[in-house]
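By convention, the token line describes the chain's fold. To illustrate:
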Amino acid sequence: MTWWCTGIRWNDGRPAIGWYQPGQPGRAGLQGRPGGMERSSLLAYGQPLAFAARGERHCLGVRRAGRRTPCPTARTVPGRTGNAQCPECARLDRSFSVAADTNAADPRTYRVYLAWFGPGLLKVGITAEERGSARLLEQGAVTWAWLGRGPLMAARRTEELLRAALGVPDRIAYARKRAVRAHLPPESERAAEVAGLHARAVALDGWPESLERLECEVADHGGPFGLGALPAPDRVITEMVPGGTVSGRLVGAAGPDLHFAEGLVVDTRLLAGWELVAPAEGAGSDVPTSGIPSSGPETPAAQDGLF
């Protein structure tokens, strides 16, 4: 009975590792999905964590509206790609995507947000209101605030307005977020930078009439991410390989990253699609790494440290 990792999930502000078992019928205690099953394992900071990759990395198919459709050809995918999808499933995924502007008819209410990742590293974005702050957690936003709410296209037009008028991007390279995470200013300084840009944003002319401006309420993810205990990261895994082993003490998580006490960072997007098992006794870390620039129901974590 094989469970493939689907990467990190943020459930009620807590990190968890998601799992997918293709082609199995529903069972008690797990969340049934057409074409397979899904579950998740909560993670705890300060605890040992160890795992090894087994077999090959598989395409996870397409997940839409909470339902996962398995890859029709059961393709394998390269170890270095951040997306555990074959080209065909990736194209299908983007054919109905708000991010790719291929789902303009989405009737849900959207929110425009301002996200802060480090000094001078701010971005503007949109997310479905029903998702709450999940999108901010997934991106590794340290400090953030809502700017407005309304229909999808009004939210998208406001995002473009703010990018052009304020000079803030809608994307920031993840390596830049990671590099500054262990050297952040105090929470009060982070909040002040977000509040200052929020004031400039809501004072602009040109907002769509259907988008409601929201008052500034700055939120901070320093606690959920465990920022107070993060060591300066010095290595990041660049690829999982068959038999590759990782072990250490988990001290924090932010966005898709797991931070270990030894300074190792594991981007869980690279774990997605792998079967992860408890490592053999005495196994060491033998996965490729690179240096970091200075600049449903919950399944409890197993006692042996495998999630």
